[in-house]
Design goal:
Order of helices and strands: HHEEEEEEEEEEEEEEEEEEEEEEEEEE
Strand content: over 45%
Structural class: alpha+beta
Low-confidence stretches: 2-14, 16-32, 513-519, 521-525
CATH superfamily of the largest domain: Porin
Radius of gyration: 40 Å
Distance between the termini: 61 Å
Largest sheet: 16 strands, antiparallel, barrel
Shape: elongated
CATH topology of the largest domain: Porin
Strand order of the largest sheet: 2-4-5-6-7-8-9-12-13-14-15-18-19-22-23-26
Number of domains: 2
CATH class of the largest domain: Mainly Beta
Number of helices: 2
Number of strands: 26
CATH architecture of the largest domain: Beta Barrel
């Protein structure tokens, strides 16, 4: 700008000088001296004018630069204000979803459900299937269909949050449904079912140290997360069936958990969780050389008297590492368990501990960003049955009275396709498989004990009313379904879903019979199979 104005001023000055010279032709020699003096004076005057013009140019340029700085500063200020307005607006919208009471924010959640269940064989189950109870053909109900309607998976939740300071955050979470099954609950007339705890816990988070404490009932630490190791980020299969697909590792139980994160990228957690053991007692257990005297107990105060509780005195211990490096989520965990019983050794009663546990991993990958997600999780170990959806037994008993953990592995894989903002489609498959833990003992004759013993009688598994021990060796399922969100707006969300699943239970090989004489695989039913076709529908309304 300065150079342009200066050039204009110089050109103007030169133009004036040349004009003056050309406008006054040369006079006679007598006047030449006076004319030269006059021209010199005028040239000096023009030089002064040029200097004045140059000074004016500098002043104008300084004004222009200052105005430019003002404009830039003003633009930046406007941009900052716009950002502040947007952030405030977002905070206002976020806050509008919460209730405030005595300095804490309360967020309500949950849904109302109207659902139906069809099964090709009767399980006597509501919306949560019982895979280990799928009947073989020797049971009459295996030949009868099952249909039920239910609203019991409806769910209510409340999240209470408060900030002690910018670094310390406290929260409490309560989540209930109506799948509690008290002795008075039935479907005869009023269909009265009681609420049950899903999750009830408190948390404290410290940002500067990256520490997170959780105490109460929540998903087990070994449950797959979608990100980090934080509560309410658990990634369950998106199905309708309330009993998750076989192969999915999970539990919801009381625990105390401490987690450390490094820049919300790497996570390490340890959890002490409520123990419980599931047992398999052989049909010949009464003839075992050593009898169990104490491994479970009838339910007492605070429990349903129809149930039994295992005897445990050490919590289950879970350690988990997770990483979110930028693409996907990855985790690996280890589980330690202790089993407890009492029996007589050489006439002297003693308490005995037997140990089990395992390890597992999980992966969540966005194969196509915001369109196609893949998840995988699995676990291997001994005495881990209670952590799988198929609920195979944790342990059985050896002839000398010891608890004998059953080796098992489980895995789940699935795809979820987000077809658009309204429709999700999913396809999953999972399996759980146990290894046999069998024994032979002599006690006034040969006694077959344990789990999956090939001497057990499976001769009648395919015959109505026949004999079938049928220890499950493997349970697997394939399932597919969709969710259609046909309303999403300021009044919440309403959606419809449907799910189909095919499940197969296969037993360990056993003995058959020919004319009352035992023999191996006499009628080709040594490894009996039971199958179940299931179809679910669900209408759900999420008002919050």
């Amino acid at each position: 700008m300065r150079s342009k104005l200066l050039a204009v001023a110089i050109a103007a000055g030169l133009g004036v000088t040349s004009l003056y010279a050309s406008a006054d032709p040369a006079p006679a020699s007598s006047t030449k001296t006076s004319q030269s003096s006059t021209q010199a004076a005028e040239i000096e005057a023009l030089k002064a004018q040029l200097q004045a013009l140059q000074a004016k140019v500098v002043e104008l340029e300084q004004r222009t630069d200052a105005q430019s700085d003002i404009n830039v500063s003003t633009g930046q200020a406007v941009e900052n204000v716009q950002k502040q307005v947007a952030a405030t607006d977002a905070q206002v919208k976020k806050s509008s979803d919460k209730l405030s009471y005595k300095g804490v924010n309360i967020t309500l959640g949950g849904f109302l459900a109207a659902e139906s269940i069809y099964r090709s064989a009767q399980e006597g189950a509501d919306i949560a299937s019982n895979y280990s109870a799928i009947p073989f053909k020797n049971v009459q109900t295996a030949h009868m269909n099952e249909f039920r309607m239910t609203a019991r998976q409806s769910r209510l939740s409340a999240l209470v949050q408060g900030d002690v300071n910018p670094d310390t955050h406290l929260a409490g979470y309560v989540e209930l449904d109506f799948l509690g099954g008290a002795q008075t609950a039935n479907s005869n007339e009023s269909n009265s079912f009681n609420p049950r705890i899903r999750n009830v816990y408190m948390t404290s988070d410290w940002d500067n140290s990256g520490l997170h404490l959780l105490a109460g009932q929540n998903w087990s630490l070994l449950t797959l997360n979608s990100k980090g190791i934080t509560p309410r980020s658990e990634l369950t299969p998106p199905q309708i069936d309330a009993q998750y697909i076989p192969g999915f590792t999970w539990a919801r139980q009381a625990q105390i958990r401490l987690v450390k994160d490094w820049d919300k990228t790497y996570w390490l957690g340890i959890s002490l969780e409520n123990p419980q053991t599931t047992f398999y007692a052989s049909p010949n257990q009464a003839n075992a050389p050593v009898q169990q005297t104490a491994y479970n107990i009838g339910a007492g105060s605070g429990f349903d008297s129809a149930n039994t509780l295992s005897l445990n005195h050490i919590p289950d211990v879970i350690v988990k590492f997770a990483a979110d490096p930028g693409f996907g989520h990855y985790e690996v965990f280890g589980l330690g368990r202790a089993f407890y019983n009492r029996y007589a050794v050489n006439g002297s009663y003693q308490n005995h501990d037997t140990y089990g546990g395992g390890w597992g991993l999980g992966v969540v990958l966005p194969l196509i960003d915001k369109t196609l997600d893949w998840q995988f999780s699995g676990m291997d170990g001994k005495g881990i049955g209670r952590y799988g959806s198929a609920q195979l037994s944790d342990v059985t008993f050896s002839p000398n009275g010891n608890i004998a953990p059953i080796k098992e592995n489980m895995m789940l894989s699935g795809l979820t396709w987000h077809a658009n903002s309204d429709v999700d489609v999913y396809l999953f498959g999972g399996r759980e498989a146990a290894s046999k833990k069998d024994f032979q003992a002599y006690n006034k004759g040969l006694v077959q004990l344990g789990y999956g013993n090939p001497a057990y009688n499976n001769s009648g598994c395919d015959i109505a009313g026949g004999t079938c021990v049928g220890n499950a060796r493997e349970i697997w399922q394939g399932t597919a379904g969709f969710w259609w969100k046909f309303y999403q707006g300021k009044f919440g969300k309403m959606q419809f879903g449907a799910q189909y699943s095919y499940t197969q239970k296969e037993a360990f090989p056993g003995q058959g019979f020919i004319n009352g004489v035992s023999g191996p695989v006499a009628n080709g039913i040594s490894s009996p199979k039971a199958t179940e076709n299931m179809f679910f529908t669900s209408f759900r309304y999420y008002p919050f």
